[in-house]
Amino acid sequence: MSRLAVKVVAGAAALVVMGCGGALAFIYSGIYDVTATTPHDPLVGWAMHETYERSTDRAVAGLQAPENLETPEAVQAGARFYKDNCVVCHGAPGIAASPAAQGLNPEAPLLLKATRKNNPAKMFWVIKTGVRMTGMPAFGKSTPDETLWQVAAFLHKSRGISNADFAALSAR
Questions:
Q1: With bands split at pLDDT 50, 70 and 90, how would you rate the model's confidence at 40?
Q2: 43-82 confidence digits (pLDDT tens)
Q3: What is the spatial distance between Cα 72 and Cα 127, in angstroms, rounded to a whole number?
Q4: 83 φ, ψ to 5°?
Q5: DSSP assignment of the chain, as one string?
Q6: How far apart are CA 138 and CA 143, in angstroms?
Q7: What is the pTM of this model?
C-alpha cells in the first residue's frame, strides 16, 4: 500500500473515531431536549419523517390490498373500529383528539382530512405494525388482518367525510 493510501485510510479512520466520539459526547451530555412539549429541531424532525416515509415505502412494496377492499360492509366495519380505537388520538369529523393525544409529539395525523392519500397497503401496514417513538401501537398483535384491512378501506374511502356521515357509518 502506498504512503498516500495509508494516509487516506488513517485520516478516514480518525474522522470516524472523532465522529463517534462527538456523537457519544452529545448523547451523554443530555443537552438535547426530549420533552413532548417542545417540537423537534427541524433537522431532526425532517430526518425522522424521511426515515418513516422510506421505511414504510420499502415495507409495503409488493403488499397488495385484497380484491373488493372497499365494500360497504368493510368500510362500515372499519369505521366502527376506527371510532372505538383510533378517534382517541386521530380525532374524527366533529370529534377532537383526546387531551392525552394533544400531548403527543409528534402529534397524531388527522387521518380523515380530505387532502390525505391514505394508501390502503401503507395504512394496513402501519396499523398492523405500529410506529416506534410516535405513540402508534401495533394492532396486529391483537387484531386479525381482515379487521385491519377494513380500517384501511375506511381510511381510504372516507377521506373528507362529514360529521353526520361519520356518525352514521360508525354507528352500531
A1: confident
A2: 999 999 999 999 999 999 999 999 999 999 999 999 999 9
A3: 20
A4: -60, -40
A5: --HHHHHHHHHHHHHHHHHHHHHHHHHHHT-S---TTSPPPHHHHHHHHHHHHHHHHHHHTT--PPTTTT-HHHHHHHHHHHHHHTHHHH-BTTBPPPTTGGG-SSPPP-TT-TT----HHHHHHHHHH-BTTTTB--GGGTS-HHHHHHHHHHHHHTTT--HHHHHHHT--
A6: 9
A7: 0.85
**What phi and psi values does residue 95 have, to the nearest 5 degrees?**
-130, 115
For cell 456523537, the residue is 23
Q: pLDDT at position 139, please? A: 98
Query: How would you label 140-163 residue by residue, b for 16+ Cβ within 10 Å and e otherwise?
Result: eeebeeebbbbbbbbbbbbeebee
Look up residue 1 and give its three cell numbers. 500500500
Residue 144 — very low, low, confident or very high, per pLDDT cuts 50/70/90?
very high
pLDDT surpassing 90 at residue 1: no
CA–CA separation, 146 vs 152, rounded Å? Answer: 10
